[in-house]
Amino acid sequence: MGNAFLSTCSCNQFSCAAPTSPWSSKDYRFCGSCPSFLEGAWHHSCTHCAPTGTELQVTCPNAWEACDVFVFVHSHCGGETNGGLPYNLLGEDWVAGSCGPKFCLSFNATCQTPTNNSVVQPGDTHIRWTMTLFHKQWQGGDMITVPQLASETMYFTMMIKEGSWCADKTEAECLLEPGLCKWDATATSCNAVVCPAPAPGPPPPAVPPTCCDVAPGVESGNCSATEITSVCNFNLPVC
User: Fold this and answer.
1) Which of 103, 88, 81 lies closest to 134 in space, CA to CA?
2) 37: three-class secondary structure by DSSP
3) I need a surface site. Which of 25, 164, 213, 235 has the fewest CB within 10 A?
4) How far apart are alpha carbons 214 and 175 in whole angstroms?
5) Phi first, then psi: what are they for 203, rounded to 5°?
6) Under a CB-based contact definition with an 8 Å cutoff, are residues 110 and 128 in contact?
7) What phi, psi does 181 have (nearest 5°)?
8) Domain count, the chain
9) Strand 143-146 and strand 28-31: pairing?
10) Containing H/E element for 113?
11) Does residue 236 lie in a domain region?
12) Residue 185 lies in a domain
């Protein structure tokens, strides 16, 4: 892995009961629904943007049968801040899913008052930004690689969890496996299934819409920015 990029990164076990921050230098946190398969995963969190050309590599432990690797990417019309990851991950056989957690700011940062109807977990706000989840399996001892970033990247984060190698399992073994392995009777194969693929979006309009609800820093391309710069649908109260 790139030593310069990782010099201020941390690695901690993730829990939905006390979700960590995807980007530890900012007052953002995972929020919204939290899939149970992320419990106990090792979460790699960094305090800064990843520069163009960064390529992440880490070895799946030899003692593990497999590694389930999850990369979460936030994309938005505010600019090319996702490093080309959505396109490149799919090109390297990562599977996209729609069930990953979102990220949000604290109540203090948004001048909101908690209400029972606006949160899923304590501390959540209704101001949240979506991330697409990408998943891929590696066998124990394999080198895990994330595609080289095509541009400076602001909002992506990664989790690695001990898993079971689904591809070689028989139907009986697959059905008994408590992890992500699911039996596909049509293809007569055992596959790792995380969550439904994202729904296809509508065709692009003839006139591009105004870029609204941009995550902090994305619109300006400023990695250290924490202010919300575009809040078309958030209707923030005045502090």
Assistant:
1) 88
2) helix
3) 235
4) 43
5) -60, 150
6) no
7) -70, 130
8) 1
9) unpaired
10) none
11) no
12) no
Q: How far is residue 135 from each of residues 122, 160, 239, measured CA to CA in Å?
A: 28, 10, 40
| Interval 10-30: pLDDT, tens | 888 999 888 888 876 676 788
Q: Give residue for tokens 């595609």.
A: 147
Q: Which domain holds residue 34?
A: 3-168
Look at residue 95 and tell me if it is in a domain. yes
Residues linked to residue 157 through DSSP beta bridges, in sequence order = 72
H helices of 70-220, where?
85-91, 107-110, 171-176
The amino acid at 46 = C
CA distances from 134 to 6, 121, 195 (A): 21, 23, 10
Give the Cα separation of 29 and 124 in Å (integer): 8
At residue 95, the pLDDT reads 92
Which pLDDT does position 208 carry in this prediction? Answer: 63
- Domain-located, residue 75: yes
**Considering the entire predicted model, what is its pTM?**
0.84
Residue 2 has pLDDT above 50, yes or no: no
CA 151, distance to chain mean position in Å, is: 18
**What pLDDT is attached to residue 1?**
44
3-state secondary structure of 3: helix
pLDDT(122) > 50: yes
Asked whether the beta carbons of 79 and 151 are under 8 A apart, the reply is: no
Strands 102-105 and 28-31: antiparallel
